[in-house]
Predict the 3D structure of the following.
Amino acid sequence: MKIPHSVGGHNASLVLLFKDFAEGVNQMKFSIIRGLFPLLLLSLAWVDSLRRQHKLWQATVSGGRKEKMGSR
């Protein structure tokens, strides 16, 4: 890339370079988000299943305790 020696040309080149850089960052951001979205959904489903298992386990444990206390 050839940068002109004049101040105006130098600034214009930097502005164009920055615009290209910002556009590249935006495209990269979207591709990362697109790549991580399925992973995010999968992790949310996994956390939800863990919560359900925990609630089921708590219900089983508390139900078992009541039966033991009643049988004494």
Notes: The chain has a mean pLDDT of 77. Residues 60 and 66 are 10 Å apart (CA to CA). The chain is about 90% helix and 0% strand.
